[in-house]
Specification:
Layout lengths: L13 H20 L6 H13 L2 E2 H8 L3 H13 L3 E6 L6 E5 L1 H25 L1 H15 L2
Antiparallel strand pairs: 1-3, 2-3
Helix pairs in contact: 1-5, 2-5
Length: 144
Amino acid sequence: MTTPFDPMSPTSCVSFRLRRAARIVAKTYDAALKPVGLRNTQFTLLAALIMEGPQNIGQLSEALATDGTTLTRNLQVMSKRGLVEDASFHEDERVRIVKASQQGEAVFRQALPHWQMTQQKMLDVFGQERWSELADLLQLVESK
């Protein structure tokens, strides 16, 4: 016997359910990207830098909806691996602008087929129409 859905039950908490689902999905992408030595977060960071070009930490933090401390820590790891580099400095010396390095772009190209395969598997789980509906709902949350 299943319990009826109760939206006000703590087990139905929007934050909990979204974070749990996000962690499960992230693990799937992490496993797929492991052969090229990237984590899902690193792939996403490289994608943002490659698709949008060099960005300062504030812009990148906002685009990825992450805090600056976490982003800076991820950039340090990626910089040590030669995947990102400083692009230039803003007239305000406190503003750091980063970009994907040539090596970062090469690793991204290697990772892309692994990501695409996993993305397709996830789309197959949802179905195109359901994913479109969910993406619309997520966009509502993101715009708040």
